[in-house]
Each structure stands twice: as structure tokens, then as C-alpha cells.
Amino acid sequence: MGVKMMLPGRVGEKMGFLHWARFYSVLITRIPSIIASRPSVVDTRVSTFFHAVQERKKYEKIGALGFCFGGTMAIRLGATDLFQSAVVCHPGPFSIDQLKASKVPTSWVCAEDDMYFKPEKRLEAEAVFAERKGKDTFVDYEFKEYKGTTHGFASRTDLRYPETKEAFEKALDQAVEWFNNSTRAVVLLLFFAGYDV
């Protein structure tokens, strides 16, 4: 069983001590993958990949769709010219300085209960984008929260629950609509968690 299946799937689900112990025992076995996917390594790989895609396919515009670790990657790489638009779904940890450096229009898919993207961090992120209004650094943005959801819902939702299934589907619709409206003719390159934890 992967770690991702051990995380809460609905708001209000709690993990007891034994659940956390099992979670970390599985996570420890994934340390080599985590180290191999650290930002200094993975950002270079992704950059090389993006440049190769643009060169071979001659795409004019590329959109980045990032989930969890991939969401954090989209935030970091949003400071480059690799892509022209992004959708960030329940990101992992990131700094406000990384966010301030981002220069691409970004749509945010937010969980109601997210251990990595807590409400305070979300408000801080929204403020970073709002402060740019009327300035040369302004980029279009939106934040949408999906009630009844937890971290990971847009990529690993539990389809047994109607509210999380609906949120999962609406998050996909949000991403499609964002790319259609923000960049047109965009190619979606998916960033998932860099390892199956």
C-alpha cells in the first residue's frame, strides 16, 4: 500500500498514532526516491523535457498542471519562461518568495483541509497576487476551494463519496477552463507527485 492511500480522504477523517506510524514506516522506504526528486535535480530534468517538447513539437504555448509535489514544482518553475500558464492543485510546501517570483497566470485548486496548504498560507498566497493588481507584474489568478476535500483530492480522490467525486470532477473542469481561457492552444503536461508515496 502506498502512502497516498493512507492519507485522509475526507474532511474530519483523523489518523491515529498507529496509522501515522504505518504512514512513516512506508515513507521511510521511499527516501531514495524523495532524494532523487529534490528540486535541484527535478527542476533541471523538467526544464530539459520542456525545452525538448517545445523544440520537437514547435508548440507556442505550454501549460503546467501540478498536483502536490508537482504543484510546488509549477510554483517554482513559474518564475521561468518554460510555460505560459499553470494550474496548481493542493501544492506541497513552498515559500512565499518562490510565489512572488512566479510570472505566469495561475489557477489554484484548493482543498478545504490541507496539511501542506493551510488557510493562513492560502490567504498569504492570495495576497501576493492581489498586491500586483495595477502593476506591471500582475498576472491573472484564481483560487477555488472545494468543500469536504483533503490534500490530494484532485489526483487521488475516493470516488465512493459523492462530495469528493464531484470536487474531483469540478477540479478537472476548472483546469480545462483555465487553460482554454488563459492560453488557448496549450499542451498540458502533467506533474504528479514525483514518486508514488
What can you tell me about this protein's structure?
It is a single chain. The longest helix has 21 residues, at 162-182. It is built from 8 helices and 5 strands; from the N terminus they run αααβαβαβαβααβ. It has one domain (3-191): Rossmann fold, CATH 3.40.50.1820. With 197 residues, the protein is an alpha/beta fold. It has helices spanning 17-29, 31-36, 39-57, 69-77, 96-101, 119-130, 153-156, 162-182; strands at residues 62-67, 85-89, 106-113, 141-150, 187-191. The N and C termini lie close together (9 Å). It has a 5-stranded parallel β-sheet, with helices on both faces.
Q: What is the CATH topology classification name?
A: Rossmann fold
User: Helix proportion of residues, in percent?
Assistant: 40-55%
Tell me the total number of β-strands. Answer: 5
Output the radius of gyration. 17 Å
**CATH homolog superfamily:** Alpha/Beta hydrolase fold, catalytic domain
- Report strand %: 15-25%
Number of helices: 8
Order of helices and strands: HHHEHEHEHEHHE
CATH class: Alpha Beta
The average pLDDT score comes to 86
Uncertain runs are: 193-197
Tell me the structural class: alpha/beta
Sequence of strands across the biggest β-sheet? 4-3-2-1-5
Span of the ends, CA to CA: 9 Å
Major beta sheet summary: 5 strands, parallel
